[in-house]
Each structure stands twice: as C-alpha cells, then as structure tokens.
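Is manganese (II) ion placement plausible here? Inputs below.
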Amino acid sequence: MSDLVIPAPTLPTVPTTTGGRFPVRRIFCVGRNYAAHAREMGHDPDREPPFFFTKPADAIVADGADTPYPSVTQRLEHEVELVAAIGTGGSDLAQEDALGHVWGYAVGLDLTRRDLQAEAKRLGRPWDTAKGFDASAPIGAIAPAAEVDPTSGTVELRVNGDLRQSGDLADQIWSVAETVAELSRFVTLAPGDLVMTGTPEGVGVVRRGDTLDGAITGVGSVRTTIV
Ligand code: MN
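Reply from A.M.:
I modeled the complex. Tokens:
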C-alpha cells in the first residue's frame, strides 16, 4: 500500500526509434546557440558563453499530437532544435567524454511565448512563463547516438509546408559536446535529462491551425498542429 497522499504523477516518456520509450527527468535548453539567430534576437553571438533555462518534463507533446495554443500570449513562436537525451549521468564532464553520456538524439520544438519573453528581458525577470509552459516541447522519436552525427546535418522547420527555418548543426556556436560538458558544471546530469541545443535563424509566429514540421538530416523529425 502506498503512503502517497495524492496520486503519483505520470512519468513523461518519449518513444525511441528502437521501439522502446525514453523516460524523461528534466528538460534543459540552451539560448542563442547559432550566430544568425543570436543576431536576429539583437545579440552579439561572439561574446556570450552558453546559458541555460528549463522546461518541465511534462511539457512534452508526442510526435503527431496536437499542441493547444497557450494562454496569456499573443505571439507564440517556433524554434526547431536538436535534442540530446542523456543516458548516463555525471558532473564536471570533460568535453571529450560528454557525447559518451548521450543515449540518443531527437528533433524538438522549443515553443516560446515571445511577447512574455520580451517583457521578461525588459524587466529583468525569469523566462519561466515564456518558455516552460504546458505543451511547450513537442519532441520526435529518439534515435540511438551510434546512428547520429550531432556535428552536422540540415536543421529545418516548415509551417504548413513553407520553409521558415533552415540551418546546419555545424553552425552551432557551442557543439553538443561543449554544451553537455558546460551544463554538467552547473547541475549533475542524470539519466533521463534532455538537452535542447538551440535554434537556427528564422524563428517566427505560429497561429492556430498551423502544422509545424521540424526535421534534422540524420536524426529524424517532429510534427504538431496548433489547435
Ligand atoms: Mn530555443
């Protein structure tokens, strides 16, 4: 018999291309990791070390499922990103060891209430409500790391079939290895952690009825419709 005073929350999971499911513990995200995107957001990409924010694990939207348009925003925007799924934990990882801690890779969307983010930046407030809201993280199937090269591959996002974002993993300011190593200085990474590694240029507005298709060559894809 359980002594839990309320029902235990359901463990969020993401399907893998191997037919299993990856249990999700936390979701970390990197800001401004492509020079062209940093510039389009009004920043100088050459001067900033990586910085991190989070989404709750239960913000995940299954591939192919609808995403409800979030409350309290007039400007929902898409960001397509490579997601690294941590399989082995650790802290203070060396760059050359970091990729050995990654179980696999997926394509994810870092959905953003851009108006709330702009307000937070202006007022020096946290980004939580701009980034970490319900259903803010559609994520596709996770492919095993052995099948993926996280250092190159076209990163694309289409809205209703029209190409909106196009970049390449090779253009990341901080590589996945560098990002995972750096993040492990701030937190002890654990199995089940996801790391969204930043978005290339071309972020833009999403409206109800839009279908978003994210894809990364050699990794996979993710699709959702905003309802
Ligand atoms: Mn992002």
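Short version: The chain has one domain: 24-44+57-225.
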